[in-house]
Amino acid sequence: MKKVRLGIIGVGAQGGLYAGFISEGKVKNMVVGALCDIDPSKKELCAKKYPDIPFYEDYIDMLESGTVDAIVTCVPHYLHPEMGIEALKRDIHALVEKPAGVYTKQVRELNEFAATKPELTFGIVFNQRTNPLYQKVKEMIDQGEIGQIRRTNWIITTWWRPQGYYDQSEWRATWAGEGGGVLVNQAPHQLDLWQWICGMPKKVYSNVKYGYQRDITVEDEVTAMVDYGNGATGVFITCTHDIVGSDRFEILGDKGKIVVEDSKKITVKRLHESESELSKSMSWADVTKIFMGGDLGEIYDEEVLEFSSVWGAQHIAVMENFAANIIDGTPLLAPGSDGIYGVALANAIHLSSWLGKEVELPLDEELFLVELNKRIEEEEK
Q: Cβ distance 150 to 138 under 8 Å?
């Protein structure tokens, strides 16, 4: 195979972006094989912009057309697992957009089916995993540069959305249409990075506000606390009503701390000895002398790393990696099976708030579905 022929299902903002990148030759080893959308207006638009690319109104017709080797699902969240399975059934590689689905049960079904087709490539668009900054953070954690994690904190409130954003269509910010709010629409990348770098927690307790500052039925304010099961804890905060926004990710270890600011700068403080050792060996007089004298270099070394990124580069990188895996087996940066972890975190945060208590992971998938369906029914009244 010289180049992967990608079928884009859903030619909205995201699908249109991918079509543009690929048709402009920005994605190595990939061409647009076909386009698909149920909206008649998209057919007219694509006929003008991409006259030589086949267009389908039914994605099954596209899958069976012989015009594509792989697909990407730029459609509502509930449809990602179904479309991924249908593609894989027909021996077509599948790249699903984030989130992998709305609830873990449907994502698990996708993962289990994909496991029966190991010869096919199954990926997810976690483009932030291609971000050199977060790759560096993961590398430092994996190599134990700050020791064992004690606490993680991520406040990511740069998702400001005015009411007009939600009023664009009836399905947006609904349980039936999107399956949630900020957790399933804006924050899945951070939920994935959080667990990719720091690991999955064992327990979740949350305080979530639904329609707090916007006229919507789903969440627009989230504070979640997690327990990793070994004494370490974490906090995740996100919302869509903070117009000035914050993006700060802290990881405290027993041998130092990593702070990421605005996804652009990493500050690493590496202790010369572990905090436990320092606690045992230092007298209060030593502490007073060092901290009052400002000579903190006796305790730790500090490194600051700054990163910049070109808009669109990370989406291009994840598609190139997907194509490379198909062509020559290059390892996937974001295997599709990893999509279940972020969904599990979002589900646990929702379920904890609905039940008003801490929930354990893996969560009760059937109970989650019962509670989700209650909200869909209430929304439709």
A: no
- Asked if pLDDT for residue 310 goes beyond 90, the answer is no
What's the confidence (pLDDT) of residue 138? 98
Token duo for residue 374: 């209650």
pLDDT over 90 at 173, yes or no: yes
Closest of 202, 240, 250, 190 to residue 220, by C-alpha: 240
Encoded amino acid at 54, one letter? P
Q: CA-to-CA distance for 39 and 333, rounded, in angstroms?
A: 33
Q: What is the dihedral of CA 253, 230, 221, 78, to 10 degrees?
A: 110
Phi and psi at residue 144, in whole multiples of 5°? Answer: 70, 25
Distance CA 73, CA 130 (A): 19
- How many whole angstroms separate alpha carbon 303 and alpha carbon 76? 42
In this prediction, residue 291 carries a pLDDT of 86
C-alpha 356/C-alpha 378 separation (Å) is 19
- Kindly state the average pLDDT of the residues 26-55: 96
Give the separation between CA 279 and CA 265, rounded to whole angstroms.
29
**Amino acid identity, residue 324?**
A
Compute, in degrees rounded to 10, the torsion defined by CA atoms 302, 308, 313, 314.
Answer: 30
Q: How big is the chain, counted in residues?
A: 381
**If DSSP codes are grouped into helix, strand and coil, which group holds residue 17?**
helix
Going along the chain from its start, the domains and CATH numbers come out as 4-125+312-335 (3.40.50.720), 129-309+342-380 (3.30.360.10)
Q: Take residue 39 and report the two structure tokens written for it.
A: 């909206």
Share of the chain above pLDDT 90, in %: 94
Chain mean position to CA 179: 15
First to last CA, the chain: 52
Given this model, what pLDDT does residue 293 score? 82
- Return d(Cα 292, Cα 248) in angstroms, integer: 27
* Residue (of 366, 374, 41, 381) closest to 175 by Cα position: 374
Question: What is the spatial order of strands in the sheet that 122-124 belongs to?
Answer: 55-56, 30-36, 4-9, 70-73, 93-96, 122-124
pLDDT, average across residues 234-254: 98
DSSP H or E segment with residue 73: strand 70-73
State how beta strands 149-156 and 247-253 pair: antiparallel
Give the pLDDT confidence score for residue 380 in this predicted structure.
Answer: 86
- Position 255 scores a pLDDT of 98
